[in-house]
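Re: that chain you flagged

S.,

Sorry for the slow reply, it's been a week of failed gels. I finally had a moment to sit down with the sequence you sent. For the record, here it is as I used it:
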Amino acid sequence: MINETPINWEELALGKETFSPYIFLKDGTRVYAKHQDRVVHCAALENCFENFSKNKETPVVLWLGNSQLHAINQYKDTDLLASEILYGNLQKEGYDLLTISHPSANLQEHYTISEYAKLKLNLDSVILGIVFDDLREDGVRNDVGKFLNDKSLSAALSETKIGRKIIKKNSDVLDIEDDYGGLSMTFQDKTERLLSEQLESKTELWERRAYLRGVAFNTLYKARNYIFNINPSTKRKMIKPRFEDNWNALEQLIDLYNSSSINVYVYIAPIRGDVEIPYVLNEYDDFKQKLALLASEKDAYFMNYEDLVPAKFWGMKDSTSVSGLPELDFMHYQYDGHKILSNKIYEDLKLGEIK
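Prediction finished late last night. Pasting the structure tokens below so you have them in one place:
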């Protein structure tokens, strides 16, 4: 039997130069950081809140973001994520911290997680890191979408227009690992499952189809980038319908917490500034102004951290094309960058409501 090392396809684009230090708990939950028996930073929602909620009386700060929070350039064994550093500081103030991050996480996902977290946690404050590029993403990934089966969560989302749209989008999308999605208990389903079971017992190649499918998609992704000369420095135009859905989700997220007197801290995520950034600048400038105005109108704290991490703490990443040449990493920085971000957030939280 041939066994490949398990691959997290969502994280594959990080490459070898950018490392995510995740571990597995006894129940199989993958987490990015823990402190003694406490989960500090979750890689997925499954069992995340169950492993976290040890003391329901302690006020909780929830930190939401993308892979910038769980990946470190040129990682060393002694390095800590920003979430671990902030957790230690907030513990001194009598607060717990739970961080949840996904690669390229969009605001529809953050809103969905927020509705679920509000049902599960004694929330005091929420920190939301926003990356302009992630507003080009749409819908919710499977790790998040499967929790829409929770009746309380689906009922909460159904109260808003964007929530109903998220539920509808999710119901239309099939999980890539589910070869039988949408066919359950039909004649076709039963026939294909029988054939699959027979093929799995006869050939290793069929059993490895999910792995091979991932390899094929990754190869096509790199080939596309090479043919069209797409790299991390390529300008990315905003996709208007997706931007609008993500923006609507952000408005609902802030309203959700405002209605329960939960503090909301919104920040523009750091980006390397020693080279031209891969955004259409007038679109990016409009976004920053619009975000600052929204936070002011909705009584949320707003911080612009785009220039926070100095150029010397940003690194390179593995190639995303068949050329194999190293590329600039605009999203992930070294351990010093994590320290800077964590300390700045802690400082700004203390200037706000946490004292």
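What I noticed first: The first helix runs from residue 48 to 52.

Talk soon,
D.
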